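Section 5.1 Outputs to date
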Amino acid sequence: MACLRSERSSSPRARFHWALPARLGILGAALALAGCNTVLMHPSGDVALQQGQLIVVSTILMLLIIVPVIVLTFVFAWRYRQSNRAADYQPDWDHSIQLELVIWAAPLLIIIALGAITWISTHTLDPYRPLRRLDANRPYSPSAKPLTIEVVALDWKWLFLYPDQGIAVVNDLAAPVDMPIEFRITAETVMNSFFIPALAGQIYAMPGMETQLHAVINHAGDYRGFSANYSGAGFSQMHFQFHGLSAADFDHWVQAVKAGGGSLDRAGYLALQKPSVSEPIHRYGAVEAGLYQAILNRCVAVGTPCMHDMMSVNHSTPTTGMRQDTAASMAMAPDAMVMPAPGTHPHRD
């Protein structure tokens, strides 16, 4: 029993000695993180900047009700503690119109403000909507031609095609500063998520479908891009560099790709689409016409019917013994009806 009493008496002191370094470590980590220049809060693209401001405004509005509640919790606990005999005690009090108005009106006003801000921002920052400004001080005409980049998520790498420049690059991306960019995004096998935190929010890439993203980079520099949706064994290495360049430097970059790259045709794409991890940068100075549309419609291989052609046939010709919507669904995903052989699917085996 003596040993037990001795152990119990020393336990709080031991816990204190262990707790103090842990608390100091947490405090140090918090102070260190407080000085971080987080990309989401300090981006280099106007769209990401507006999204970051939306996060800040929403957080402040919510703190307007959260902070007073937390403070009053401690105030009430201290004021009405058992040892405070001077606290006003009213056991028969049960209602106050003024207090009810404050309790219900403040959260209601905050919810209305959050709803209005969210509704406006949802439409203003719609990724499918062409940009109307370069930044807060410079408007941009929607009729002006942006830089078009076609994005294909592969296993486990990114293919970027520049249709107007006639080039393609794997795991490397560049765009001029203050030039609106129109991304057209799809995938080859499974769903991924295209994300450059400094530029704009993440947009999903899905097989047989095209999503869009309009964005602009306002400051020159190198920025990290990656997949934000788990897609298999090589997901952790599915990243790339996004280069914000001046107009002259971007022209030089395009010329360097054209001079130092080969040609990307359908056969080359079929070889490129095979799963690989930590794929190095590839540059293609020429791209076969219609390659992106063939990727989108899942008919790169010779003899494979294109998805949009099959959909047209199903919409124009009734299918005997099958509902029209079922036939259209089969046309949209023709390879979904075929089960892969064991050991051949990189995401399921």
